[in-house]
Specification:
mainly alpha, 15 helices, 394 residues, 70% helix
Length: 394
């Protein structure tokens, strides 16, 4: 009940604030807008981005160093209710509004990149996601009371993600009045990337009107859900990054990196630098958009590597490892193909005017590490003798 009360309070506050300008935190207006230079040569809009980025980085630092039971667990418990509420609104709205699917079965207008292999690095969380592998090992596994709960949590989470992915597709596919409107909005991958989030919020809000929720109220609720899950992802990522930095410090005997606050400061500092320093085409603070093209391949490579590690573990246990080996081979082949194609044709000096040395260097590092892990894994899979006793299985 307290979690439901908190959820209701959050939604009511968000809806009321969206209707009452006096309750909105409008930093660009407070700082004088684009015409006023505030500090560091930044105008009111750019300085607003800077302030929010600093606030989020401070939040990440605090949230990622607190014990999980103080913030992460109760907040994510509320977020789980948000997911249930959001899915209920979308699917009930879908049922009662019975909107027409105006999106075509295949969009032949988007020809700026090939469907294969790009399709397999575009679809992520609704199918398979490497980030979930990190979360499962870094935080989820540490919150289970006993091992058998992992099956319900793992499979239940995957089913929930699949339901959300399906609802998202339907929300966007039914948003537009005609197929022509859809094709205009999704004429290319670039156009889809520019309006994707807004289209989802609008489409989900439109579905919610099927159960008599006003469009503007529904849009606010959906936006709150999106922001809440983004915040969860943000501080969980920093926590996992801290774990990885600490493990690297332990492995290579750099004891300073094993300290909680040193590792967290490094994680937050590098994240802030990646956001603030690269100059994106969306202005100051848009470094994340510059690096976003790396997300699909790096995330799916991590998913393939997760399956790879599970395959090695199953083989050493003397158990059937084909259910993870087969999808791993397919996923690894597609994502390495996609990364190689992007490196050579999209970002390298051979790409001509589209050369992006930042993405080329970072992508090359990721590609080399993926190949290194693959070679190590192949060597490990060739070993016949199980290294882990069955009574020590986790």
């Amino acid at each position: 009940m307290p979690s439901l009360a908190a959820l209701a309070t959050m939604y009511i506050a968000a809806v009321v604030a969206s209707q009452v300008p006096a309750l909105q935190i409008d930093l660009p207006r407070y700082f004088g807008g684009e015409e006023n230079i505030v500090a560091f040569g930044l105008n009111g809009v750019a300085f607003s981005f800077f302030v929010w980025i600093i606030i989020l980085m401070v939040y990440c630092y605090i949230a990622s160093t607190l014990p999980v039971w103080k913030l992460l667990q109760p907040r994510d418990y509320i977020n789980s209710h948000q997911l249930v509420v959001g899915l209920a609104i979308l699917y009930l709205g879908m049922l009662f509004s019975n909107r027409a699917m105006t999106a075509p079965a295949m969009n032949s207008a988007a020809t700026d990149v090939p469907w294969i292999p790009i399709l397999f690095i575009t679809i992520a969380c609704g199918a398979i996601s490497g980030f979930h592998g990190l979360v499962a090992s870094g935080t989820t596994s540490k919150q289970l009371d006993k091992e058998p709960q992992a099956r319900m949590v793992g499979y239940g989470g995957a089913v929930g993600e699949g339901m959300l992915a399906m609802a998202s597709i339907i929300a966007v596919g039914t948003l537009f009045a005609t197929q022509g409107d859809f094709l205009n909005a999704y004429s290319s991958f670039g156009a889809a990337n520019g309006g994707g989030l807004g289209n989802f919020v609008q489409g989900a809000g439109q579905l919610a009107t099927g159960i008599f929720i006003p469009q503007n109220v529904a849009n606010t609720i959906v936006a709150v859900i999106v922001v809440s899950f983004a915040a969860t992802t943000l501080d969980t990522s920093v926590r996992l990054m801290r774990y990885i930095i600490s493990e690297l410090g332990k492995e290579y005997k750099v004891l300073a990196l094993t300290k909680t606050h040193v590792a967290t400061a490094l994680a937050v500092g590098t994240s802030a630098a990646l956001v603030l320093l690269p100059e994106g085409d969306r202005g100051f603070g848009s470094g994340g958009y510059v690096l976003w093209p790396l997300f699909g391949t790096s995330n799916q490579l991590l998913a393939a590597i997760t399956l790879l590690l599970i395959t090695i573990w199953l083989k050493r246990q003397g158990r059937n490892f084909l259910p993870t080996l087969i999808p791993m081979v397919f996923l690894l082949a597609m994502t390495l193909f996609a990364m190689g194609r992007q490196l050579i044709l999209d970002w390298s000096p051979f790409a001509g005017a589209n050369t992006n040395m930042l993405l080329f260097v970072l992508g090359s590092i990721i590609f080399v590490f993926a190949l290194w892990i693959l070679l190590e894994a192949v060597a490990a899979l060739r070993g016949n003798k199980p290294d882990i006793p069955k009574d020590k299985a986790m």
